[in-house]
């Protein structure tokens, strides 16, 4: 969003130019600064840059400690560029239009040609724009034919540092006179009218759009809409539904789940499956198109209904088609196989346990005595089954042992090397062979007589 040329003074003057891809950035000497300049340590303050409509931007000096003088002449609005002599260094700032930035996966040579053509074709865009409602506020203008990618990644047009923002959180665009917003599978969700969305949704100008818990913005088309949005109480105080009523919550750590979290609302059925229209999409082939439905009743009970062909596993059991399971006091994990799970969390503690366990199907079984006893019984049954299998394989063990010993004392070597079951099997085999020899001998004697 800015090109920053830093000129260092001193015995050996030098300069360095960097690209700052943020709508707001802090330039200072502390580690928390987006642009760290050691030569500014003697100043005691940092410079905050925030973007405004078009190429306009604000500069504000920010004290880095108590009783520090901040030059108020720096505080103001600049159009296009600014040259600031801070003493130890000189900062030359140039605002860059969003349509002059390289696009996603665009080759550098093609990007350079496109940028030159667009820069020479006319003035940069002013509207439409998105207004970040925060302290400080920022406005990002963009071209109608170019969408805006928002997130924490360096590839994003609008790069933000909030903890609840995903690397590629959402995309915003403007088509046919309407704004649209698309959630890109973020971990904390995108909300319109305080309701979480899945996929792309059209949004009117001035309607609050919340990303996660910390960032709210609106789409604007005029300077008057910016002023109105900044004083509107429903925008200033807007908080996503995820923060106001966060539980019960469906959460998945699988990379194939979109969105990764869905807050259950009373009377609203949430469809989970492989169908792209599902409220929670699981993009793996073994999941049915409409695998199951989760609903929060008006009485506060979470109801899970299976709609699949192969069932939905939970707590060591399997919910078959059209079967229903309900819970209101216990969290659980729905296991769709292949490492894809969805946690039904009823509290912050449940969510923390699910995340700490990496979404394991046994997350909420560990401390349940009844489930532990059931698991122990199943484990004992499997052990008995393995024991029978080992016994049945004992003759094979004896055969392999016979093949591996030769020479004098072979029988003794063989007997010593066998396990208890193997010895028992060998004894049975010897007795069986002895009996068979006796029968054959008896028949021969009878024939001779």
Task: Note the topology.
Elements: E1 2-8, E2 14-20, E3 24-28, E4 35-36, E5 45-51, E6 56-63, E7 76-79, E8 81-85, E9 89-95, H1 108-121, E10 129-132, E11 138-141, E12 148-151, E13 158-159, E14 170-175, E15 178-183, E16 190-192, E17 195-196, E18 200-203, E19 209-211, E20 215-220, H2 223-231, H3 233-236, H4 241-244, E21 249-251, E22 257-258, E23 261-263, E24 269-273, E25 280-282, E26 292-296, E27 302-306, E28 312-314, E29 317-319, E30 324-327, E31 332-335, E32 341-345, H5 348-356, H6 369-392, H7 394-404, H8 410-417, H9 420-448
Parallel strand pairs: 3-4, 12-13, 24-25
Antiparallel strand pairs: 1-2, 1-9, 3-5, 5-6, 6-7, 8-9, 10-11, 10-20, 12-14, 14-15, 15-18, 16-17, 16-19, 19-20, 21-23, 21-32, 22-25, 24-26, 26-27, 27-30, 28-29, 28-31, 31-32
Helix pairs in contact: 7-8, 7-9
Rg, nearest Å: 35 Å
- Most strands sheet: 6 strands, antiparallel
Regions with little confidence, pLDDT below 50 for 5+ residues: 386-394, 404-408
The count of β-strands is: 32
Helical content, roughly?
Answer: 10-25%
Strand content: 25-35%
State the strand order across the main sheet.
Answer: 11-10-20-19-16-17
Helical stretch tally? 9
Structural class: alpha+beta
What is the residue-averaged pLDDT? 84
Ends distance: 112 Å
Give the CA-based shape. elongated
């Amino acid at each position: 969003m800015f090109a920053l040329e830093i000129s260092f003074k001193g015995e050996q003057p030098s300069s360095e130019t960097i690209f700052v891809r943020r709508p707001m950035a802090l330039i200072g000497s502390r580690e928390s600064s987006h642009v760290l300049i050691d030569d500014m340590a003697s100043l005691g303050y940092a410079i905050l840059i925030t973007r405004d409509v078009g190429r306009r931007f604000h500069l504000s000096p920010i004290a880095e400690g108590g009783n520090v003088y901040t030059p108020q002449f720096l505080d103001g609005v600049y159009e296009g560029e600014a040259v600031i002599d801070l003493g130890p260094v000189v900062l030359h700032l140039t605002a860059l239009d969003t349509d002059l930035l390289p696009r996603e996966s665009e080759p550098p040579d093609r990007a350079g040609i496109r940028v030159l053509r667009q820069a020479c074709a006319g003035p940069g865009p002013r509207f439409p724009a998105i207004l970040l409602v925060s302290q400080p506020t920022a406005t990002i203008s963009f071209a109608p034919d170019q969408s805006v990618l928002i997130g924490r990644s360096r590839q994003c047009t609008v790069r933000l540092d909030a903890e609840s923002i995903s690397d590629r959180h959402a995309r915003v665009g403007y088509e046919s006179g309407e704004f649209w917003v698309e959630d890109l599978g973020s971990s904390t969700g995108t909300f319109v009218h305080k309701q979480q969305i899945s996929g792309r949704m059209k949004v009117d100008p001035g309607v609050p759009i919340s990303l996660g818990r910390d960032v709210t913005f609106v789409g604007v088309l005029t300077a008057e809409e910016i002023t109105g949005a900044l004083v509107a109480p429903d925008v200033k105080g807007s908080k996503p539904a995820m923060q106001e009523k966060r539980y019960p919550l469906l959460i998945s750590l699988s990379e194939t789940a979109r969105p990764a979290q869905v807050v259950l609302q009373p009377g609203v059925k949430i469809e989970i499956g492989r169908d792209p229209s599902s409220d929670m999409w699981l993009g793996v082939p073994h999941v049915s198109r409409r695998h199951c439905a989760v609903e929060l009743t008006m009485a506060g009970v979470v109801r899970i209904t299976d709609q699949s062909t192969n069932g939905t596993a939970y707590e060591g059991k399997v919910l078959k088609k059209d079967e229903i399971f309900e819970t209101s006091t216990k969290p659980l994990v729905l296991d769709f196989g292949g490492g894809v799970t969805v946690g039904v969390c009823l509290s912050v503690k449940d969510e923390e346990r699910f995340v700490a366990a990496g979404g394991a199907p046994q997350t909420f079984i560990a401390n349940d005595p009844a489930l532990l006893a059931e698991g122990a019984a199943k484990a004992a049954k499997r052990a008995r089954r393995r024991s029978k299998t080992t016994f049945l394989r004992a003759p094979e063990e004896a055969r392999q042992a016979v093949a591996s010993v030769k020479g004098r004392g072979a029988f003794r070597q063989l007997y010593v090397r066998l396990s208890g079951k193997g010895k028992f099997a060998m004894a049975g085999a010897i007795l069986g062979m002895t009996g068979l020899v006796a029968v054959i001998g008896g028949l021969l004697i009878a024939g001779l007589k």
